[in-house]
Predict the 3D structure of the following.
Amino acid sequence: MARRVFFSFHYERDIFRVSQVRMSGVTKGGYEESGFIDHPDWEKIERAGHAAIKRWIDTQMQGASVLAVLIGAETAGRPWVNYEIERARALSLGLLGVRIHNCRDPRTGNTDYAGANPFDGFRIGEGLWARPLSTIVPIYDWVNDRGYANFGSWVEAAAKAAGR
């Protein structure tokens, strides 16, 4: 069964690292991608305001099975990343994180520092039983965990964990 994956990331800082994930081919053949947009198109939506951005995100998430947050140095706490995590939870999507800081920026050849876990800012449970969402969302490293070879199985596991 084909899985539709919505990718969440910090566009300005990480687009060159994100492109490596996108162009790796792992999102093809059994997986549909959403959440990718070219810079001129993103700027057009951004100029239309917050309501337009939310509509675009909501439309892109329709039919998705999994939200994959591509975690760079400054992904955690980004307003649109947070919104996408909230929407994914409301839609009961599978969740996973993929650290991309070890991917080399093709412009400079440099890697980046590991950023905070964006799922730390969300809670599951209530009262004394509340705990960070990060305690149940798997986080992988694209380079160290061989994302090129394993991304499909990560998506499948996240979808199954969400009952999809």
Observations:
- The longest helix spans residues 147-161.
